[in-house]
UniProtKB/TrEMBL annotation:
Pfam families: YcaO. It comes from the Archaea. This is YcaO-related McrA-glycine thioamidation protein. NCBIfam families: methan_mark_1, YcaO-type kinase domain. Residues 63-394 form the YcaO domain.
């Protein structure tokens, strides 16, 4: 299972092949419109909004890419992921009240009040469980349903989309789900530690798309700075932060984060994520946008001061000096991820199969990894020790 498409993404086939396979099923999962929305911005980096009727009414799934087809596939695959993660009747049949080999729920990073309630106990009565597979230890085990399905009302924490991923095959889905969990963990540690001061210099980048993307930002008079957020796990994680000196719209002070075994692909993901975030804010301006409403009340200059550490830097690393861990083969890449996790002190890599229909979709869970960047109520008891460790390494 070699990686055949790797210039701006990391897939076993060209996005056109993926599109031909998924297009016929989009209407079956409730998709009723696909619209390119980057015309609302001035960057010209493709962004699509996919409208779907979901469990919570009409929802929009966003997709981005360096090409039109890649962005369209990205948004459509996200729609498939979200559909697959909704709790359906067939999923209820998989739920258990009495697990045989449950994960220790304390390792799932709980809100502080739940940790206090738990004490020395390993579980809470009334939790619904579902079977997953631990790739590292090669065994089945059960995880709480609120860590798998979304939306889902459980007893432990608010459900979210972290680690939900689809792919052209199962291994591709697992790899991309794992990279997302590692990305959110590294971002969370950076937020908690305040360590966002290492800028990435991209002059040595070999991928021409990086230079083309940055030229688009420069031509639009949008300053963007790249930050190295890589945690002790060692898989390149990049943050891209932009300002908006032309329109002075605080909602367009956006961040994008990308994680990949290849640092240049991580950079491309972060930059296209910024473009997506900008288009999303502009697309939702006429609709209900909680973030947009709040930050526009705060104002542009004040918002930039609040987040000034993202725009400042104290040290620089060349992109050519960031470790490239990519092996260009799904099995070898997954093995690399496993090895990196174990070296970083993480002993489980769990996936739950969410496939509904033609497209492989999974939820990946890596116990002990932080989710603060998505849920400010959840911080693990070992976060401080990890931050101390990272600071000692750097």
């Amino acid at each position: 299972m070699d990686i055949l498409y790797k210039l701006d993404n990391y897939r076993v086939c060209h996005p056109r092949e993926t599109w031909d396979r998924i297009y016929p099923i989009l209407s079956e999962i409730g998709v009723r419109g696909i619209e390119r929305i980057d015309h609302l911005d001035r960057l010209g980096i493709p962004v699509y909004a996919v409208e779907r009727i979901g469990e919570e009414g009409i929802v929009y799934h966003l997709g981005k890419g360096t090409t039109d087809i890649q962005a369209k596939v990205s948004g459509s695959m996200e729609a498939i992921e979200r559909y697959s993660a909704e709790l359906k009747e067939e999923d209820r049949k998989r739920l258990k009240e009495k697990p045989e080999n449950p994960v220790d729920i304390r390792e799932l990073v709980l809100p502080l009040d739940i940790y206090r309630y738990l004490g020395e106990r390993k579980s809470i009565r009334g939790i619904q469980w579902i079977e997953g597979f631990d790739v590292i230890n090669e065994c089945t085990l059960e995880v709480p349903a609120e860590g798998v399905f979304h939306p889902y009302r459980g007893k432990l924490f608010r459900s979210n989309t972290n680690g939900i991923a689809s792919g052209n095959n199962l291994y591709e889905a697992i790899l991309h789900g794992a990279l997302e969990v590692i990305e959110r963990d590294a971002w969370s540690i950076a937020e908690l530690s305040g360590n966002t001061y290492r800028r990435i210099e991209i002059e040595g980048a070999k991928n021409p798309l990086i230079h083309e993307l940055l030229e688009r930002f420069e031509s639009a008079n949008i300053n963007v700075i790249l930050k190295d957020l890589t945690s002790e796990v060692g898989i390149p994680t990049v943050g891209a932060v932009c300002d908006e000196e032309v329109w002075k719209d605080p909602a367009l002070l956006c961040i994008g984060v990308g994680c990949h075994l290849h640092p240049e692909i991580a950079v491309i993901r972060a930059l296209t994520e910024v473009a997506q975030s900008r288009s999303t804010q502009l697309h939702s301006r006429g609709k209900s946008s909680l973030r947009g409403d709040i930050v526009r009340r705060i104002g542009y200059e004040r918002m930039k001061r609040i987040h000034r550490r993202w725009y400042e830097y104290r040290e620089v690393i060349g992109i050519e000096d960031m470790e490239n861990c990519a092996r260009y083969n799904l099995r070898r890449d997954l093995k690399t991820v496993e090895e990196k996790l174990i070296e970083g002190g993480f002993d489980k890599l769990i996936y739950v199969d969410l496939k509904k229909g033609e497209v492989d979709t999974v939820r990946v869970i890596i116990p002990k990894m932080e989710v603060y960047s998505m849920d400010r109520d959840r911080i693990s008891p070992w976060a401080k020790e990890r931050i101390r460790k990272i600071r000692s390494i750097r």
